[in-house]
Amino acid sequence: MHRLAIITSKGGTGKTTTAINFAHACAMMGKKTLAVDCDAQGSLSLSFGLNGAQGLSDLLLTNRVDIYSVRPNLYLVGSGRSDIYLVERYLVQQSSSEYPLAEALERFEGVEIVILDCSPSINVVNSNILCYADKVLIPVSMDYFAMEGAALTIRIVDEIAAATRKKIDVLGFLPTFYDGRTRISKTILEQLKGKYDKKVFDTMIRINTQIKESQLHHKTIFEFAPYSYGAYDYYCFAREALGRLDGLEP
Amino acid sequence: MAIKKPSEIFMSFAADEKMLEDIRRSVNDAIADVNLSNKDRNGILLAIEEACTNVIRHAYLYAPGTIRIKIRKSPTQVSFSIYDKGRRFDFDRATAATPDLDRYVKTGRKGGLGLYLIRKMMDSVDYVSRDGENELRMAKTIQPRVQVLPKPQGISIRLKFALWASLVVCAIIAAIFFYYDNRSSNTIRGRFFSEALSFAHTTALNAADKMMVGNELELLNLVASAIKGNPILINAVVVDTAGRIWADAQNPENMLTYHEYPAGVDSSLIDRFQPIESDRYGPIFHLIVDITAGERRLGHLNLIFGRSELSEQLSRSRRMMILFSLIGLFVGLGAVYLLSNYFVKPIQKLTEGVLKIGQGNLDETLPVEGSDEFSEIARAFNEITLKFKSAQANIVEQERLQKEMQVAQEIQHALLPRRFPEIEGYELAAVYRAAKDVGGDYFDFVWIDENTMGIIVADVSGKGVPGSLVMTMIRTAIRLEARGNKSPSDILARVNEFVAEDVKKGMFITIYFIVLDSKERQISFSSAGHNPMILYRKDTDRCYFLNPKGIPLGLTLPDDISFRDSLQVDKLKLKKDDVLVIYTDGVTEAMNARNEQYGNDRLIQFIREHSTLTPNEFAAALDQDIIAFTGNAPQNDDITLVVIKEKIMADELVFEKRRRLIQMVEFEKVPVEEACRQMGISPATYYKYRRRWKAEGDAGLLNKKLRADEGIKQLSYSARQKLLATILEHPEYGSGKLQKVLAETGEECSARSVYAELVNLRLNSKAKRLAYVERFGKLKPEQREQLEKEMLREERARQDRYQYAEQLKQNLESRHIEKMAQDTGRIITQLKQFAPAGGTDIYDGISRELEKLEGGTEIASLFRSLVQKMTSGDDQTAKSHGVEQQDAAATPATVSTPSEAASQKSRTGPITVPKNAEKIDIIAKAVDPEGEVPQLPSEFEEYEKKLVNKFKK
Questions:
Q1: Of residues B830 and B770, which shows the higher confidence score?
Q2: How close A148 comes to chain B (CA, Å)?
Q3: Is the pTM here over 0.90, yes or no?
C-alpha cells in the first residue's frame, strides 16, 4: 500500500485539484484508491458532495469513521466536523501518544494507494501526516514563491523523516498552472528542472479553465470535460505517477 | 497637622448643664490639631454636646455625677467615648427608629433629636453598658483633604519685572539727562563766552584807533554804541595804562578819573571772565581785554556782562531737557508695562490653568499660543494632564477588571462547599487553592440519597468569568440530576445534555464523578476526560491510576457518537485505610522556578509516604509539599484535591449489619417487618439472607458480589513503569511472560491485567512492541529482522482473516450456517496451531473484517457467538478477549458495564466501512455524472484510446 501525501507549504498550487483528479484517474485505471481529506477546510470532501459529513476528526475523537464510496474503486474519508487541528492538540494533551493522527491513519487498510490532501501550512496535522506517509508529491505552480515553498517543504519532509527514522520518498514535483505563452512559466520550469532534475514530472498541468469549472459542478475533470486537455494532462500525469509506484504500473 | 501616632486624652466633668460650655471648649482644644473641616468640627462639638446633655438629663436625671470623656486621635479617625454611671437606655430601640423629621418641623418641637443628630454627625456610634458604667462610643473618620495650594505671597513676577524695568529705564533716562544737560550748558556757556570775547576784542581794536588819535568823545561814542548794540553788555570802560579812565559808557562823568576795580576782580587776569557780585549791577562777569596798537599796549578795556542772561538761557535749556526726560520716562514706563503684559501674561495664564488642574479639574486644558517656551510648557503640561487622565482612566478600568475577577472568584468560592459532609465509614477532605486569576477548578459534594454521596472534581478549560459561569451552570445541573441517581455516567450524560448547548465553542469541561455508597460500601466512578484518580492500597502499598474512559463535556460530537456511550463506569471497593486522591492538573503540573513539574512520581511518592495521616492532615500536607516544591514560582493553575479514606472494612460492616438483622429476628424475636424497617431493607432481602444463613451459617452472610480483596484490574503505577522497562528490554515477551517477570520483581498481577494494560498502551502485539522499541532507537539488528518478519506475519494474518471472512460471508449468504460453524471450527483449530498465544487477536480481526463487509455486523455477531461456544472452557488466554463481556460480568473487582465494553471494543475495534448503505446512494446520486463518463475500468480502456488519439494530433 502506497501512502502518498500531496503537500506543500504554499497555498493555491493545486493540491486539492490534483488530489481529486489523480485519485479519480487512479480509480479509473483500476487501482483501489482511498482519498483522505486532511485539510480542515474540507475542500476535497466538498468536491465529492460531502458537506459537513463526519471524517478524520471524528475518527480521532470517537475511534470510528464512515468511509464513503464516491466512485467505483474510489473511497473517501472527509475531514470531519471538528477542526482537526484542535482535536489533535487535545489528544496529544490527553494521552501518551505523540502522533495520534498518524496512528489513526495507520488503521486504513485494504487499498492500493492512499492519497492524503494536506493543508497549505506546516503544522502538527501535517507533521502527523508526514509520519504516516511514505511518499510526497509536491505540486508547484509556475511562480517564484511556489518554488521557494517547495524547497521549504522538502526541508521539513527531510527533518521529519530524520526525526522518525523512516524513509519518505519524494515522488516528484508536479508543475501546475503552466502557461506556455508566458516567459515566467518557462523560466520557473527551467529552474525547477535545474534544481530537482529527474524528480520533476515530464507531464505538466496546463492552465485550463475547465478544471476550475469542473469543481463548481462537483465533478472531476474526467466527468466534466472528458476530452479537454485538462483531462489529458491529468491522465498523462496519472500514468507517469503510477509508473513511479511499485506494483501499480499501468 | 497630621498626627503621627494615636494619642489619647482623658477629661472629666461634673454632670451639670452649666459645664456644657466648658466641655465644648475643652473638646475643641483637644481636637484643634486634627485635620478636620470646619463643618465636621462643629458637627463633632454638637454631637458631644448633645450626648452630654442626654447624659445630664436622662442618665443622671439632673442628679450630681461625673461625665468622663476619652478622646482618641489617630491619623485616620478621631473617636470619643463618653462614660457615665447613670441610668442606661435602650440604644438599639432608639437607633432603630428614624425620627420623622417632617413631624418635628411641623410641630416645631425641639430636642429628642439628639441621637439622630449624633448619628448624622458621626460615622459610627455604639453604646455599651457594663459594670454599671455606660459608654457611648462615637467615631469620625478623617477625610483626607485635598490641600488647595496657597496663593503665593509677596511680590508677583509681574511687579518684580515692572519694578526692575522701571528702575533701569529711570537710570538710563537720568544718565541721558545729565549727559545732555551738561553738554548743552557747556555749549551755551561756550557760545556766550566766545561771542562776548570776540565782541570785546573787536571793541578793543576800535578803541585802540580812537585812543591813538586821542579822541575821547569818539571813544565814549564807541562804548556807548557797544552797550546799545549788545543787550548783555552792561558797561564798558576804557582805561589807559596809567589807570585813567578814557571813556565809561554808563558814567561819562568819570572820564579822566582813576579807575578802580571792583572787589574780587584780579586785574592781572586778561581775557578771563571773572564772575563777581557787583553792588551796582548784581551778578556780572568782569572781562578785561588789552587795547594794543601793534606791539604797544595802550590800555585796557573793562567790560561788564550781565550774568542773568546766561543763567536764563541755561535754565531754559534745562527745562527743555527735563521736559524731554519726563516724556521719555513716561514712554519708557509705558513700554515696560506693555512688555510686562506681553511676557508675563502667558505665565499668569499658565499659572491659573495649572492651579485649576491642581485643584482636580482634569478636563481643563492650557491654551497653547505661538511656539515659544511658554506654549511649549503649556503643551507639555497638557500632555501630562492627558496622560494622567488616561492613566487614571486606566486605573479605573483595571480596578473594574479586578473587581470583575473578584466577583468571579467570589462566585466560585461561594460555589465551593464550606464544610465537608460526613458520610458513614468514609473520611473526606478537600483542598482548594486558587491561582492568581480565577481558575476553572471546582469540587463539590452532593447527596444522592441519605446513604449515598456524589463527589465532583472538575476543571473548565477556560478561566475567568466565563469559566466560573460555566461552573455555576454545571453545579446547578449536577445538583438537579444527581438527586436519586446512583449512576455517575448517567448523571454526567444528563449534565452534558443540560449544558452542551450553552458551553462556548472551544471550551470544554473535564469532570470526575464519584458515587460513594455508604450502605453497599461501594464506589462507582466515571470520568469525562479528567485526570485519573489515584487509589492507594494500604495492604499492598501500591498505587493505581483509575481512569475510566470518557470524552470531556462540551465538545462537538458527530450525531451518531453519543457522549453517553463514551462514558465508562468502574466500580471499586475500598479496604481499611485505602486512600483515594482525586485532583486536577494544577497539582501535577505545578511548576517550580526551574520549570520542573511536580509530576506523577512525586505525587505517588508523597501518597505512599503519608498514607497514615487523616485525610484532612493529608490534604494539608500535600498542599504544603506542593508549595514547598514550587517555592516562589507563581501559581499558574488552581489546585484542587479531594481525599477519601476508608475507615472501616466494607465487607465487615455489611456482614455485621446482616448478622445483626438475623440476630434481631431469630434471637430477639423482633417482628421481621419491624427489623427490616430498622435496617432499611426489604423483607424479601431478609429472607434471602436467612436462607443463606441457614444453609452456610455465618459465612453465608459474607458479601459475595464485590470483594475488596480481589485484585484490581489495572496495573499499579510502579508495575506499569516496570512493564514498559521490560518491554524495552524484551519486546518479544508476551503478556504471560511479562507477567512472570513482573511477579519476580514483586508486582502481583494477573496475565489478564497485563494484557489489558498492553491493549491500553497499544502494545498488544509483538510487531507493535518492536516498533515501540524502535521508536526509542534501542532496536538491535536481529530484532529489526524480527520486526520485519512480524510485520510480514501480521500482513499475512490480515490477508488470511480477509479470506476467512469472505468465506464465512458466502456461507451465510447461502444460508449455510452449519458450514459456517464448520469453517469457524476449522479456523480455530488452524489458529491454535498457527498462533496459540495471540489467537484471540485473530478472532477479533476476523470479526472486524466481517463487519466491514456488507451486512457484516450480523455475521460478525454470529461468528463471535460461535467462537465463544467453541472456545468456552478453553485456556485462559483464549478467554481474555472475545468473551470479555461475559467474563466481565463475572469479574468481581471491577465490573464493566456494557457501555464500557462498547468503548473498549471501539478503541481497538474496527473502522466501520459504509455502515449506512443509504448514505452512499444519496451521495452517489448527488454527484451522478451526466453523459458519457467512464464508469468501469473496461469502459476506461475505450475512453483512454479516444483521449490519447485526440491529443496525439
A1: B770
A2: 32
A3: no
